[in-house]
Amino acid sequence: MKKIKRENIYLYFNDDEKLDFFEIVENENYKLLKVLKDDQRSYVALIEIKGEKYIYKQPREKNRRKWQKFLSIFRGSESKREFKNIEKICEVGLNGATPVLAVEKKRGLVVYDSYLIYEYIVGKESSFKDIDIIIKELKKIHSLGYLHGDSHMNNFLIRGDKVYLIDTKLLWNKYGGFGRAFEFMYLEESCPQEIEYDKDSIYYKGAKGLRNYLTFLAKIKSIRRKKK
Q: Beta-strand (E) ranges in 22-93?
């Protein structure tokens, strides 16, 4: 990943020929094809630049939060981290998008705005009929020592007989069997019916207990907020 600085703006990229995407986006000289998400958390759109399709992603919530701004002093923006994460997906031998450009806008040391552009993957949204190859891909991620980070079925894109990872954190698995069991449990929760994996192990039972505890805490917090 290369980096250049333009006053208070930092650009992260790999291909010098794509560096002019910054001016194109800033001047809105691209074609907006479809808004995929537009809420307080993030803005995601399918855009066209020079006849090719790309995804534009702005993490609005993380750009605004005071704590996230403070942390950006040490670890950079969400967009920069996601750029590096997408790179890692390909580096370890998994299928993912190609990152094009991450932009950080700073005031002093603090990031106040950022966005990411990466190549659009032509494929189809996964469905339960793809569950076998999704499980196979999740097992491959685990065999490499990583966790998907958000193993919801919608975060697996299908292209032919290959599975592509989207919205993937790709975290190093510090939790061993518990981490793997938790991801299969989370995947199952996004499915219309049960899936086959080891539910007799101590790892599954521990992950299930933690999940129930976290769900209980979330309900308590919700009740307290309603009372206020």
A: 31-38, 43-49, 52-58
**φ, ψ for residue 42, nearest 5 deg:** -160, 165
**Distance between CA atoms of residues 94 and 138, nearest Å:** 10
Whether residue 46 contacts residue 36, with contact meaning beta carbons closer than 8 Å, is answered with: yes
pLDDT band at 228 (very low <50, low <70, confident <90, very high): low
Q: How far apart are CA 2 and CA 99, in angstroms?
A: 12
Q: Where do runs of H (alpha helix) occur along 4-65? A: 21-26, 60-64
List, for residues 132-161, the tens digit of each pLDDT value.
999 999 999 999 999 999 999 999 999 988
Closest by CA to 117, choosing from 106, 128, 129, 103, is 103
Q: Name the token pair of 147.
A: 């966790």
The 10s digit of each residue's pLDDT in 59-87 is: 988 888 888 888 888 888 999 999 999 99
The SS3 assignment for 166 reads coil
**Separation CA 142–CA 186 (nearest Å):** 14
Contact 148, 141 (CB under 8 A): yes
Distance CA 126, CA 163 (A): 9
Residue 116: in which H helix or E strand, if any? strand 110-119
